[in-house]
Amino acid sequence: MDQWVVFLAIVLAFWSILLMARHFLPKSVEVRPFYLIWRTTKFNALIERAGAKLRPFWKVIWTIGIAVSIGGSIYITYILARNLFFLFFKTEGASPVSLLIPGITLSPTFNTLFFFGISIVVILVSHEFSHGVAARAEGIKVKSTGLLLLAIIPGAFVEPDEEDLKKAKKSSQARVYAAGSTANIIIALIALALLTNGTLVISPLYNTTPSGVQITEVVPNSPAEGVLRTWDVIISINDSPIKNAIDLERVLKEIPPNSSVSITIIRGGETFPVDFKLGQSPTSNSSYIGIYTYPYYQPKYSFAPSFLPFYILGALSWIYILSLNIGLINIMPVTALDGDKLAEVMINFVFKKKNLSEKMGQVLRWSCLLMLVLNISMSFIVFPSFRFG
Q: Which class in CATH covers the domain with range 210-296?
């Protein structure tokens, strides 16, 4: 509860300062309570060139994107409906569905915030740029691009000319609305393909067989604090070789808690032993060091930093997870999401009677919104201590 109070106080203070300073900001920046938007036309020429070139190619891609979006919308709606059932009646089978808020549902560590920031930039840029490219490929003007902030939720946008968009064919409108989420799903699949071949990605600079475990973070107030450091590499404990996390877990289970051991580490290119007293794991009866680890891939060249594989493959993992999930959520038929506009186009295309199509749209919109809200709210109840990262 204290975390929520501090968090809300920070948010309120931030928006209060922004509102007081809004008259000193450029005219391109608009500030209202819990709403900030910055518009610019600086990127219009780039979008124009990207959309004009390979126009037939983009039309094929975004047409496929319509099918991908419809299928993805059905899939994520089913997944959320199933998860909601589990949240109410079979919690052991449920998964948390939550907004990622730093310090609340997102671990406030440097690495977590770094990966989250990189992922959001990639997701927003690819999503909105694709909307702009799709619009220009369909001959729809782009008025402006920009960034926005809704309370704590960052965003970006490409603003097509509304009159042009309304006059465009239903197929053109559908391609524009489907483009953003399609781009996110494509980015996620590319990231997954690179992750699947992760050792090949790092092979030009690193050996692809792990030869130790690298410390990516030291847990505060743990036995490791003050003794081991971030980016130290553990290669043995009491002369038992440590090649990977499995070796580390096995050795720690064999040694009684609170034992004194000799840990051989690599630090700054030098290898030496460290006298260390193990602790008791807070979750089991095994010994405990108090570190987060990642496989150590030995650099082939002196200029290659030992931590680079962790950041390359870690960023790809976050981009895959967040891009796929955000892309799927965004194509749900929920107000303010692209899926709502795409669903409206498709319903109007299938059902010619305006009253019938509007009623069906409302039922679909409110049902999916309720399902999403219930998933998030119930997740806070069932998983009160959930944190991602």
A: mainly beta
* CA-to-CA dists, residue 18 to 31, 40, 151, angstroms: 7, 20, 12
CB 324 within 8 A of CB 241: no
pLDDT at residue 80 tops 90: yes
Q: Which amino acid is at 286?
A: S
**279 and 222 Cβ atoms separated by less than 8 Å:** yes
b/e sequence 345-382, b meaning 16+ C-beta within 10 Å: bbbbeeeeeeeebeebbeebbeebbebbebbeebbeee
Q: Where are the domains of the chain?
A: 44-138+166-198+316-382, 210-296
Model confidence at 130, pLDDT cuts 50, 70, 90, reads very high
- Contact between 116 and 318 (Cβ < 8 Å): yes
Greatest Cα-to-Cα distance within the chain, rounded to the nearest angstrom: 78
Q: Which of 26-40, 108-122, 135-149, 229-243 has the highest mean pLDDT?
A: 229-243
CA distance 181 to 123: 9
Rounded to two decimals, the pTM is 0.87
